[in-house]
UniProtKB/TrEMBL annotation:
Domain Tetracyclin repressor-like C-terminal: 92-218
SUPFAM superfamilies linked: Tetracyclin repressor-like, C-terminal domain
Protein name, UniProt field: Tetracyclin repressor-like C-terminal domain-containing protein
Classification via Gene3D superfamilies: Tetracycline Repressor, domain 2
Lineage: Bacteria, Pseudomonadati, Bacteroidota, Cytophagia, Cytophagales
Domain of life: Bacteria
Organism: Roseivirga echinicomitans
Pfam families: TetR_C_23 (PF17931)
Length: 222
């Protein structure tokens, strides 16, 4: 009986969470700003205030969870494709960006109302702090595979920082999409391809690695 009661309680919490997120988005779209207070927000939904706090501490935490939802939706979608396992790391990151932008398109009006038009790369916006942790896990998994296949190079001190470069790349892509006024966001698609190709060209074996190898050879055979 206890297990059944716990299961029902968890299900109710999930339902409340989804209901609150959906209602919050609708409120922003209809009014152009946040609800005046959590009390007024839940009153309109005919939900007890405690139900909100069982799921979120504030509207900020609710927004953070929305972004994590969109990230999880994206990763689930690309990994569900049979061909995904055969993708190179470059193709996996491209698939992520293209799919993520598709997810964002469905929520563009909400995003334009709640996110600053320009996100500075030197800091992580509050709504993306939890998102960044999950994004890092995904990217590091892709990069780990890439190192094994030598699609990207293991470089002293540098390879541990590859993720930081990908995070700046993500902010660039997101900022570009926010300001993109081209038909069907064609310019964003082009920006994604160029940004990802550049990053993998830099992380992959190149002239610098050949110079390092040659230097090692000369040192060992001096």
């Amino acid at each position: 009986m206890e297990k059944k009661a716990t299961s029902k309680s968890s299900k109710a919490k999930v339902n409340d969470s989804e209901k609150l997120k959906k209602a919050y988005i609708e409120h922003i779209l209809e009014h152009g700003n946040r609800p005046a207070s959590i009390f007024k927000f839940v009153k309109e939904l005919k939900i007890k205030e405690e139900a909100f706090y069982e799921n979120f501490n504030s509207f900020d935490t609710l927004e953070k969870e929305l972004w994590r939802d969109w990230l999880r939706e994206t990763i689930t979608a690309i990994q569900a494709e049979e061909v995904y396992a055969e993708y190179s790391a470059r193709e996996k990151l491209l698939a992520f960006y293209f799919t993520f932008i598709e997810v964002l398109k469905s929520n563009r009006s909400f995003i334009l109302l709640t996110v600053k038009k320009t996100i500075k790369p030197e800091f992580t916006p509050a709504h993306l702090k939890e998102f960044r942790k999950d994004f890092k896990d995904f990217v590091n998994e892709v990069l780990a595979e890439a190192k094994e296949t030598e699609e990207v190079q293991n470089r002293p001190y540098i390879s541990d920082k590859y993720y930081e470069g990908i995070w700046l790349q993500f902010l660039f892509v997101f900022n570009f999409w926010m300001k993109d006024d081209s038909k069907a966001f064609e310019k964003t698609d082009e920006a994604i391809e160029k940004a990802v190709n550049l990053s993998f060209d830099l992380m992959g074996k190149g002239p610098l690695d050949s110079m390092i190898d040659f230097g090692k050879f000369l040192f060992q055979n001096r």
